[in-house]
Amino acid sequence: METKRLVFVGVGGQGNLLASRLLGEAALAEGVPAVVSEIHGMAQRGGIVESAVLMGNVTSPIVSPGEADVLIGFEPVETLRALGKCNKSSVIITNVHPLPPFTVAVGQGAYPEVDDMLALIRKKAKRVIALDGDAIAEEVGNPLALNMVMLGALIGSGTITITAEDMKRTISSSTKEAFLESNLAAFDRGFEEAKAN
To answer: Cβ of 174: how many Cβ atoms within 10 Å?
Structure first.
């Protein structure tokens, strides 16, 4: 079985740890060996949160520099910051909606232009899927569904063997009834965005 190394990066509160856990569960449910690792930054304070899902015959949960097959960035600066994990064959899926850190809010830093960041990101990877995941989550009526949008985009990218049906089955079994419809709608919209990209 081909090994796939996926790295999820974002800011605390965006749901990337849940997304990586659900992906790992979906893989295992389909008989795909998977290891999920988490590196908690200052998640409680809006700091960096990184997780990884490794599928296939892997012995270590670590994704070393240059090893990521797919980078899923929930915030554009964090995507940029994690570029070292990628190589020229990597696929990068990034949310383009900025979530400036506290230092920017208090005037102690400047947030880079998203277009400038995307230009740098595109130089590093084989394929880049850029979408406004926050806007999509708002449109489906669940501003907290960014992680579902990004999972949909990942599956829609065709970079891994997990199908939309497999992923939606896992989402359905792990989501509270009140959020299920909007989570699945967010997933579908992310899936469509990736297909169109």
So the answer is: 14
Per the CB < 8 A criterion, the answer to whether 130 and 118 are in contact is yes
Q: Please tell me the predicted confidence (pLDDT) of residue 186.
A: 97
The answer to whether the beta carbons of residues 6 and 52 sit under 8 Å apart is yes
Q: Which domains does the chain have, with CATH numbers?
A: 4-196 (3.40.920.10)
pLDDT at 17 over 70: yes
pTM attached to this predicted model:
0.93
Q: Is the dihedral of CA 106, 132, 75, 118 positive or negative?
A: negative
pLDDT value at residue 46: 65
Q: What are phi and psi of 95, to 5 degrees?
A: -75, 135
> Please, where are the H alpha helices in the chain?
16-29, 76-81, 102-105, 114-124, 133-139, 146-156, 164-174, 177-196
